[in-house]
Write a structure and sequence with these properties.
With about 425 residues, this protein is mainly alpha-helical. It contains 22 helices and four strands. It has helices at about 1-10, 20-25, 25-30, 45-65, 75-90, 95-110, 115-135, 140-145, 150-155, 175-185, 195-205, 245-255, 260-275, 280-295, 300-305, 320-330, 340-350, 375-385, 395-400, 410-415, 420-430, 430-435; strands at about 210, 220-225, 235, 240. The N and C termini lie close together (about 10 Å).
Length: about 425
Protein backbone atom coordinates (compact mmCIF):
# COMPACT_ATOMS: atom_id res chain seq x y z
CA UNK A 1 0.00 0.00 0.00
CA UNK A 2 2.81 2.45 0.82
CA UNK A 3 4.33 2.13 -2.64
CA UNK A 4 0.91 2.86 -4.17
CA UNK A 5 0.66 5.99 -2.05
CA UNK A 6 4.20 7.01 -2.98
CA UNK A 7 3.53 6.83 -6.70
CA UNK A 8 -0.02 8.14 -6.68
CA UNK A 9 -0.31 10.56 -3.76
CA UNK A 10 3.07 12.19 -4.27
CA UNK A 11 3.74 11.35 -7.91
CA UNK A 12 1.61 11.45 -11.03
CA UNK A 13 0.59 7.80 -10.97
CA UNK A 14 2.63 4.65 -11.30
CA UNK A 15 3.99 3.66 -14.66
CA UNK A 16 5.44 0.24 -15.39
CA UNK A 17 7.84 -0.97 -12.69
CA UNK A 18 7.45 1.99 -10.33
CA UNK A 19 5.43 0.18 -7.67
CA UNK A 20 8.18 -2.38 -7.41
CA UNK A 21 10.86 0.31 -7.31
CA UNK A 22 9.07 2.19 -4.52
CA UNK A 23 8.18 -0.87 -2.44
CA UNK A 24 11.44 -1.23 -0.47
CA UNK A 25 11.48 2.32 0.92
CA UNK A 26 8.57 4.48 -0.32
CA UNK A 27 9.70 7.66 1.45
CA UNK A 28 13.22 7.36 0.08
CA UNK A 29 11.75 6.77 -3.39
CA UNK A 30 9.72 9.97 -3.16
CA UNK A 31 12.66 12.05 -1.94
CA UNK A 32 14.97 10.64 -4.62
CA UNK A 33 12.55 12.04 -7.22
CA UNK A 34 13.28 15.63 -6.21
CA UNK A 35 15.40 16.64 -9.18
CA UNK A 36 15.20 19.76 -11.36
CA UNK A 37 12.89 19.49 -14.35
CA UNK A 38 14.57 20.31 -17.65
CA UNK A 39 12.44 21.12 -20.69
CA UNK A 40 13.35 20.83 -24.35
CA UNK A 41 15.73 23.57 -25.42
CA UNK A 42 14.42 23.37 -28.95
CA UNK A 43 11.52 25.61 -27.97
CA UNK A 44 11.96 29.36 -27.32
CA UNK A 45 13.08 30.51 -23.89
CA UNK A 46 11.50 33.52 -22.20
CA UNK A 47 13.92 35.97 -23.80
CA UNK A 48 13.52 34.37 -27.21
CA UNK A 49 9.74 34.40 -26.88
CA UNK A 50 9.72 38.11 -26.00
CA UNK A 51 11.95 38.83 -29.00
CA UNK A 52 9.67 36.83 -31.30
CA UNK A 53 6.66 38.82 -30.16
CA UNK A 54 8.48 42.14 -30.56
CA UNK A 55 9.63 41.23 -34.07
CA UNK A 56 6.13 40.12 -35.02
CA UNK A 57 4.72 43.42 -33.79
CA UNK A 58 7.17 45.29 -36.06
CA UNK A 59 6.24 43.08 -38.99
CA UNK A 60 2.56 43.80 -38.42
CA UNK A 61 3.21 47.56 -38.48
CA UNK A 62 5.11 47.23 -41.72
CA UNK A 63 2.44 45.04 -43.24
CA UNK A 64 -0.22 47.59 -42.28
CA UNK A 65 1.66 50.37 -44.04
CA UNK A 66 1.99 48.18 -47.13
CA UNK A 67 -1.66 47.11 -46.81
CA UNK A 68 -0.65 43.47 -46.68
CA UNK A 69 -1.44 40.80 -44.12
CA UNK A 70 0.51 38.44 -41.91
CA UNK A 71 -0.51 35.08 -40.47
CA UNK A 72 -1.37 35.49 -36.80
CA UNK A 73 -1.45 31.87 -35.76
CA UNK A 74 2.22 31.39 -34.88
CA UNK A 75 1.37 32.14 -31.24
CA UNK A 76 -1.27 29.42 -31.23
CA UNK A 77 1.07 26.92 -32.86
CA UNK A 78 3.88 27.69 -30.40
CA UNK A 79 1.45 27.36 -27.49
CA UNK A 80 0.52 23.85 -28.68
CA UNK A 81 4.20 22.91 -28.94
CA UNK A 82 4.87 24.11 -25.40
CA UNK A 83 1.93 22.08 -24.07
CA UNK A 84 2.91 18.98 -26.01
CA UNK A 85 6.42 19.16 -24.59
CA UNK A 86 5.07 19.52 -21.04
CA UNK A 87 2.62 16.63 -21.23
CA UNK A 88 5.05 14.30 -22.96
CA UNK A 89 7.59 15.03 -20.24
CA UNK A 90 5.05 14.55 -17.42
CA UNK A 91 3.69 11.31 -18.85
CA UNK A 92 7.07 9.70 -19.52
CA UNK A 93 8.95 11.18 -16.54
CA UNK A 94 10.95 9.02 -14.15
CA UNK A 95 10.64 11.87 -11.64
CA UNK A 96 6.92 12.49 -11.47
CA UNK A 97 7.11 13.80 -7.89
CA UNK A 98 9.05 16.80 -9.18
CA UNK A 99 6.57 17.14 -12.03
CA UNK A 100 3.70 17.22 -9.53
CA UNK A 101 5.47 19.91 -7.50
CA UNK A 102 6.02 21.86 -10.71
CA UNK A 103 2.31 21.57 -11.45
CA UNK A 104 1.41 22.73 -7.92
CA UNK A 105 3.55 25.85 -8.16
CA UNK A 106 2.41 26.62 -11.70
CA UNK A 107 -1.17 26.67 -10.44
CA UNK A 108 -0.18 28.70 -7.37
CA UNK A 109 1.31 31.36 -9.64
CA UNK A 110 -1.44 30.98 -12.19
CA UNK A 111 -1.46 32.99 -15.42
CA UNK A 112 -3.98 32.64 -18.25
CA UNK A 113 -3.30 32.51 -21.99
CA UNK A 114 -6.25 34.67 -22.99
CA UNK A 115 -4.44 36.61 -25.70
CA UNK A 116 -2.11 35.54 -28.53
CA UNK A 117 0.86 37.10 -26.73
CA UNK A 118 0.04 35.33 -23.47
CA UNK A 119 -0.14 32.02 -25.34
CA UNK A 120 3.57 32.49 -25.97
CA UNK A 121 4.55 33.94 -22.61
CA UNK A 122 2.50 31.86 -20.15
CA UNK A 123 4.27 28.49 -20.65
CA UNK A 124 7.71 30.11 -20.37
CA UNK A 125 6.95 31.10 -16.77
CA UNK A 126 6.74 27.42 -15.88
CA UNK A 127 9.61 26.33 -18.10
CA UNK A 128 12.20 28.96 -17.22
CA UNK A 129 11.33 30.20 -13.73
CA UNK A 130 9.14 27.84 -11.73
CA UNK A 131 11.05 24.73 -12.81
CA UNK A 132 14.29 26.41 -11.78
CA UNK A 133 13.20 27.66 -8.36
CA UNK A 134 10.48 25.33 -7.03
CA UNK A 135 13.03 23.26 -5.09
CA UNK A 136 14.89 26.31 -3.79
CA UNK A 137 14.02 29.27 -1.55
CA UNK A 138 10.51 30.67 -1.80
CA UNK A 139 11.87 34.20 -1.74
CA UNK A 140 13.85 33.58 -4.93
CA UNK A 141 10.85 31.93 -6.58
CA UNK A 142 8.55 34.84 -5.69
CA UNK A 143 10.93 37.49 -7.04
CA UNK A 144 11.60 35.59 -10.26
CA UNK A 145 7.89 34.98 -10.89
CA UNK A 146 6.94 38.59 -10.19
CA UNK A 147 9.57 39.85 -12.63
CA UNK A 148 8.60 37.44 -15.40
CA UNK A 149 6.93 38.89 -18.54
CA UNK A 150 3.97 36.51 -18.22
CA UNK A 151 3.06 37.74 -14.72
CA UNK A 152 3.78 41.39 -15.50
CA UNK A 153 1.58 41.17 -18.59
CA UNK A 154 -1.22 39.02 -17.17
CA UNK A 155 -1.75 41.29 -14.16
CA UNK A 156 -1.27 44.48 -16.20
CA UNK A 157 1.78 45.82 -14.39
CA UNK A 158 3.36 46.76 -17.72
CA UNK A 159 0.62 49.41 -17.97
CA UNK A 160 0.99 50.69 -14.41
CA UNK A 161 2.35 54.24 -14.32
CA UNK A 162 3.16 56.26 -11.23
CA UNK A 163 0.77 59.25 -10.99
CA UNK A 164 3.71 61.56 -10.22
CA UNK A 165 6.29 59.90 -12.47
CA UNK A 166 7.85 61.34 -15.58
CA UNK A 167 5.53 59.13 -17.65
CA UNK A 168 2.31 60.30 -15.98
CA UNK A 169 1.49 62.61 -18.89
CA UNK A 170 0.80 59.54 -21.03
CA UNK A 171 -2.60 59.26 -19.34
CA UNK A 172 -1.96 55.85 -17.87
CA UNK A 173 -2.67 55.37 -14.21
CA UNK A 174 -1.70 53.16 -11.34
CA UNK A 175 -2.73 49.51 -11.67
CA UNK A 176 -3.05 47.51 -8.45
CA UNK A 177 -3.69 44.03 -9.89
CA UNK A 178 -0.21 42.61 -9.36
CA UNK A 179 0.19 44.08 -5.87
CA UNK A 180 -3.16 42.71 -4.73
CA UNK A 181 -2.64 39.20 -6.10
CA UNK A 182 0.91 38.98 -4.76
CA UNK A 183 -0.44 39.46 -1.25
CA UNK A 184 -3.82 37.73 -1.52
CA UNK A 185 -2.79 34.71 -3.61
CA UNK A 186 0.99 34.39 -3.73
CA UNK A 187 2.17 35.15 -0.19
CA UNK A 188 0.32 36.03 3.03
CA UNK A 189 -3.21 35.19 1.86
CA UNK A 190 -6.45 37.13 2.11
CA UNK A 191 -6.42 36.79 5.92
CA UNK A 192 -2.72 37.57 6.27
CA UNK A 193 -3.16 41.04 7.70
CA UNK A 194 -3.00 43.89 5.20
CA UNK A 195 -5.02 46.97 4.33
CA UNK A 196 -6.03 48.60 1.06
CA UNK A 197 -3.36 51.20 1.69
CA UNK A 198 -0.76 48.38 1.64
CA UNK A 199 -2.02 47.27 -1.77
CA UNK A 200 -1.70 50.82 -3.09
CA UNK A 201 1.77 51.31 -1.61
CA UNK A 202 3.07 48.05 -3.09
CA UNK A 203 1.48 48.93 -6.43
CA UNK A 204 3.30 52.27 -6.42
CA UNK A 205 6.59 50.54 -5.63
CA UNK A 206 6.01 48.12 -8.51
CA UNK A 207 5.54 50.88 -11.07
CA UNK A 208 8.39 50.68 -13.53
CA UNK A 209 8.59 46.87 -13.35
CA UNK A 210 8.23 46.03 -17.00
CA UNK A 211 9.58 44.07 -19.98
CA UNK A 212 12.64 44.62 -22.12
CA UNK A 213 11.26 43.95 -25.58
CA UNK A 214 14.22 45.38 -27.47
CA UNK A 215 17.17 43.43 -26.10
CA UNK A 216 16.13 40.68 -23.67
CA UNK A 217 19.01 38.72 -22.20
CA UNK A 218 19.51 35.00 -21.74
CA UNK A 219 18.49 35.45 -18.10
CA UNK A 220 15.09 36.83 -18.99
CA UNK A 221 13.35 39.97 -20.14
CA UNK A 222 12.73 42.02 -17.00
CA UNK A 223 13.41 45.74 -17.20
CA UNK A 224 13.05 48.44 -14.60
CA UNK A 225 11.82 51.66 -16.20
CA UNK A 226 12.59 54.42 -13.74
CA UNK A 227 10.67 57.03 -15.71
CA UNK A 228 7.42 55.17 -14.94
CA UNK A 229 8.19 54.65 -11.23
CA UNK A 230 6.19 56.54 -8.63
CA UNK A 231 8.76 58.58 -6.65
CA UNK A 232 8.85 58.76 -2.88
CA UNK A 233 9.19 56.75 0.30
CA UNK A 234 6.53 54.06 0.76
CA UNK A 235 4.98 52.95 4.05
CA UNK A 236 4.08 49.29 3.70
CA UNK A 237 2.61 47.20 6.49
CA UNK A 238 3.99 49.46 9.18
CA UNK A 239 7.51 49.83 7.77
CA UNK A 240 9.10 52.56 5.64
CA UNK A 241 10.85 51.77 2.36
CA UNK A 242 13.07 54.42 0.83
CA UNK A 243 12.86 55.32 -2.83
CA UNK A 244 15.68 53.07 -4.01
CA UNK A 245 14.37 52.31 -7.49
CA UNK A 246 13.83 48.67 -8.26
CA UNK A 247 15.06 47.72 -4.79
CA UNK A 248 12.06 49.37 -3.14
CA UNK A 249 9.57 46.79 -4.42
CA UNK A 250 12.12 44.00 -4.13
CA UNK A 251 12.51 44.67 -0.41
CA UNK A 252 8.73 44.71 0.02
CA UNK A 253 8.40 41.36 -1.73
CA UNK A 254 11.14 39.90 0.43
CA UNK A 255 9.29 41.04 3.55
CA UNK A 256 6.18 39.22 2.30
CA UNK A 257 8.17 36.08 1.53
CA UNK A 258 9.56 36.03 5.07
CA UNK A 259 6.27 36.78 6.81
CA UNK A 260 4.97 33.97 9.10
CA UNK A 261 1.56 34.32 7.45
CA UNK A 262 3.12 33.32 4.12
CA UNK A 263 4.59 30.17 5.63
CA UNK A 264 1.23 29.16 7.08
CA UNK A 265 -0.79 30.04 3.99
CA UNK A 266 1.45 28.17 1.55
CA UNK A 267 2.10 25.18 3.81
CA UNK A 268 -1.66 24.81 4.17
CA UNK A 269 -2.05 24.79 0.39
CA UNK A 270 0.79 22.31 -0.01
CA UNK A 271 -0.69 19.86 2.51
CA UNK A 272 -4.15 20.30 0.98
CA UNK A 273 -2.75 19.45 -2.46
CA UNK A 274 -0.85 16.34 -1.43
CA UNK A 275 -2.76 14.92 1.52
CA UNK A 276 -6.33 16.02 2.13
CA UNK A 277 -8.89 18.70 1.27
CA UNK A 278 -9.01 19.50 4.98
CA UNK A 279 -5.28 19.86 5.74
CA UNK A 280 -4.35 18.03 8.99
CA UNK A 281 -3.04 20.72 11.39
CA UNK A 282 -0.19 18.54 12.68
CA UNK A 283 1.31 18.23 9.18
CA UNK A 284 0.79 21.91 8.41
CA UNK A 285 2.45 22.91 11.70
CA UNK A 286 5.44 20.68 11.00
CA UNK A 287 5.87 22.22 7.55
CA UNK A 288 5.53 25.76 8.91
CA UNK A 289 8.18 25.05 11.53
CA UNK A 290 10.56 23.71 8.89
CA UNK A 291 9.85 26.72 6.65
CA UNK A 292 10.82 29.09 9.45
CA UNK A 293 13.95 27.06 10.31
CA UNK A 294 15.18 27.12 6.71
CA UNK A 295 13.99 30.58 5.59
CA UNK A 296 11.51 29.04 3.18
CA UNK A 297 13.56 26.21 1.69
CA UNK A 298 10.89 24.52 -0.43
CA UNK A 299 12.72 21.23 -0.80
CA UNK A 300 13.16 20.96 2.97
CA UNK A 301 9.52 21.83 3.59
CA UNK A 302 8.31 19.21 1.13
CA UNK A 303 10.60 16.57 2.64
CA UNK A 304 9.11 17.39 6.05
CA UNK A 305 5.67 16.76 4.59
CA UNK A 306 6.80 13.45 3.08
CA UNK A 307 8.41 12.29 6.34
CA UNK A 308 5.35 13.09 8.46
CA UNK A 309 3.43 9.88 9.35
CA UNK A 310 0.11 11.65 8.84
CA UNK A 311 0.90 12.19 5.18
CA UNK A 312 0.76 8.42 4.69
CA UNK A 313 -2.50 7.85 6.53
CA UNK A 314 -4.74 5.84 4.16
CA UNK A 315 -7.79 7.60 5.60
CA UNK A 316 -6.71 10.75 3.78
CA UNK A 317 -7.80 10.89 0.16
CA UNK A 318 -7.55 13.32 -2.73
CA UNK A 319 -9.85 13.27 -5.76
CA UNK A 320 -7.76 13.63 -8.90
CA UNK A 321 -8.06 16.82 -10.88
CA UNK A 322 -8.64 16.30 -14.62
CA UNK A 323 -4.98 16.97 -15.40
CA UNK A 324 -3.85 14.41 -12.82
CA UNK A 325 -6.42 11.94 -14.14
CA UNK A 326 -5.28 12.35 -17.74
CA UNK A 327 -1.56 12.13 -16.99
CA UNK A 328 -1.89 9.15 -14.65
CA UNK A 329 -4.09 7.35 -17.20
CA UNK A 330 -1.46 7.64 -19.92
CA UNK A 331 1.27 6.58 -17.50
CA UNK A 332 -0.64 3.59 -16.18
CA UNK A 333 -1.74 2.35 -19.59
CA UNK A 334 1.82 2.66 -20.95
CA UNK A 335 0.78 5.21 -23.58
CA UNK A 336 3.92 7.28 -23.12
CA UNK A 337 3.62 9.16 -26.42
CA UNK A 338 0.09 10.53 -26.22
CA UNK A 339 -1.85 11.98 -29.11
CA UNK A 340 -2.05 15.73 -28.55
CA UNK A 341 -5.73 15.86 -29.45
CA UNK A 342 -6.60 13.32 -26.74
CA UNK A 343 -4.91 15.40 -24.08
CA UNK A 344 -6.28 18.75 -25.27
CA UNK A 345 -9.82 17.51 -25.88
CA UNK A 346 -9.97 15.63 -22.60
CA UNK A 347 -8.81 18.55 -20.47
CA UNK A 348 -11.06 21.00 -22.32
CA UNK A 349 -14.20 18.88 -21.88
CA UNK A 350 -13.36 18.27 -18.20
CA UNK A 351 -12.95 22.01 -17.59
CA UNK A 352 -9.21 21.95 -16.92
CA UNK A 353 -7.67 23.34 -20.10
CA UNK A 354 -4.07 24.48 -19.47
CA UNK A 355 -3.66 28.20 -18.78
CA UNK A 356 -7.41 28.84 -19.00
CA UNK A 357 -8.30 29.31 -15.33
CA UNK A 358 -10.98 31.97 -14.92
CA UNK A 359 -9.07 33.96 -12.30
CA UNK A 360 -5.52 34.46 -11.01
CA UNK A 361 -6.43 32.07 -8.18
CA UNK A 362 -5.90 29.19 -10.62
CA UNK A 363 -7.84 25.95 -10.75
CA UNK A 364 -9.55 24.43 -7.73
CA UNK A 365 -7.77 21.73 -5.75
CA UNK A 366 -10.55 20.03 -3.80
CA UNK A 367 -13.10 17.33 -4.58
CA UNK A 368 -16.15 19.54 -5.03
CA UNK A 369 -14.39 21.42 -7.83
CA UNK A 370 -14.26 18.32 -10.03
CA UNK A 371 -16.81 15.65 -9.07
CA UNK A 372 -20.04 17.01 -10.54
CA UNK A 373 -22.21 14.68 -12.62
CA UNK A 374 -21.31 16.38 -15.93
CA UNK A 375 -17.62 16.28 -15.05
CA UNK A 376 -17.76 12.56 -14.24
CA UNK A 377 -19.58 11.85 -17.49
CA UNK A 378 -16.77 13.65 -19.34
CA UNK A 379 -14.27 11.37 -17.60
CA UNK A 380 -16.20 8.28 -18.65
CA UNK A 381 -16.39 9.40 -22.28
CA UNK A 382 -12.70 10.29 -22.36
CA UNK A 383 -11.74 6.99 -20.71
CA UNK A 384 -13.70 5.09 -23.34
CA UNK A 385 -11.87 6.98 -26.08
CA UNK A 386 -8.34 6.52 -24.75
CA UNK A 387 -8.79 2.83 -24.00
CA UNK A 388 -9.36 2.13 -27.69
CA UNK A 389 -5.58 1.95 -27.85
CA UNK A 390 -5.36 -0.72 -25.12
CA UNK A 391 -4.89 -4.32 -26.20
CA UNK A 392 -3.79 -6.04 -22.99
CA UNK A 393 -5.78 -7.26 -20.01
CA UNK A 394 -6.88 -4.51 -17.65
CA UNK A 395 -6.16 -6.83 -14.71
CA UNK A 396 -2.46 -6.61 -15.48
CA UNK A 397 -2.66 -2.84 -15.74
CA UNK A 398 -4.47 -2.72 -12.41
CA UNK A 399 -1.65 -4.62 -10.71
CA UNK A 400 1.01 -2.33 -12.20
CA UNK A 401 -0.90 0.86 -11.42
CA UNK A 402 -2.55 0.16 -8.07
CA UNK A 403 -1.04 -3.03 -6.68
CA UNK A 404 -2.94 -4.55 -3.79
CA UNK A 405 -5.05 -1.43 -3.27
CA UNK A 406 -7.50 -2.64 -5.94
CA UNK A 407 -10.66 -4.00 -4.34
CA UNK A 408 -12.06 -7.41 -5.20
CA UNK A 409 -15.18 -5.67 -6.48
CA UNK A 410 -13.17 -3.68 -9.02
CA UNK A 411 -11.16 -6.73 -10.07
CA UNK A 412 -14.32 -8.75 -10.60
CA UNK A 413 -15.87 -6.00 -12.72
CA UNK A 414 -12.72 -5.82 -14.86
CA UNK A 415 -12.48 -9.57 -15.27
CA UNK A 416 -16.11 -9.75 -16.42
CA UNK A 417 -15.70 -6.96 -18.96
CA UNK A 418 -16.68 -7.84 -22.52
CA UNK A 419 -13.47 -6.43 -24.00
CA UNK A 420 -10.06 -5.10 -23.03
CA UNK A 421 -11.34 -1.61 -23.81
CA UNK A 422 -14.30 -1.95 -21.48
CA UNK A 423 -12.11 -3.45 -18.77
CA UNK A 424 -9.60 -0.61 -19.02
CA UNK A 425 -12.40 1.95 -18.93
CA UNK A 426 -13.78 0.38 -15.75
CA UNK A 427 -10.29 0.50 -14.25
CA UNK A 428 -9.81 4.20 -15.00
CA UNK A 429 -13.22 5.02 -13.54
CA UNK A 430 -12.76 2.88 -10.44
CA UNK A 431 -12.65 4.64 -7.04
CA UNK A 432 -9.13 3.32 -6.49
CA UNK A 433 -7.89 5.12 -9.59
CA UNK A 434 -10.00 8.26 -9.31
CA UNK A 435 -8.68 8.92 -5.80
CA UNK A 436 -5.09 9.16 -4.71
Amino acid sequence: MSSVMATNRFGLGAKRGELRAAAEDPKAWVKAQLVPIVFSRELPSTAEAVKLLADFKKQKRMAKRKKSTLPEDFQKDLFKRYLTDYFQLAIASDNSVSMRLLRFWTNHFSVAARTPNMQVLAPTLQRDVISRHCLGKFEDLLLAVTQHPAMLTYLDNVYSIGPNSAAAKKNRGLNENLAREVMELHTIGVNGGYQQTDVTELAKALTGWSINTQSPTVDGAFQYKGWAHEPGTRRFRGKKYADTGVKQATDMLKSLARDPATARFICGKLVRHFVNDDPPPAIVNACVKRWQQTDGDLRAVFITLVEHPGAWDPKHKKFKTPEEFVISSFRGLRLLKPKERLVARGLATMGHAPYKAESPEGYGDIQQDWDGSAALMSRIEWSHEITRYVRKSAVKFAQNMLGNSVSQRTLTAIERAESSQQGATLLLMSPEFQWR
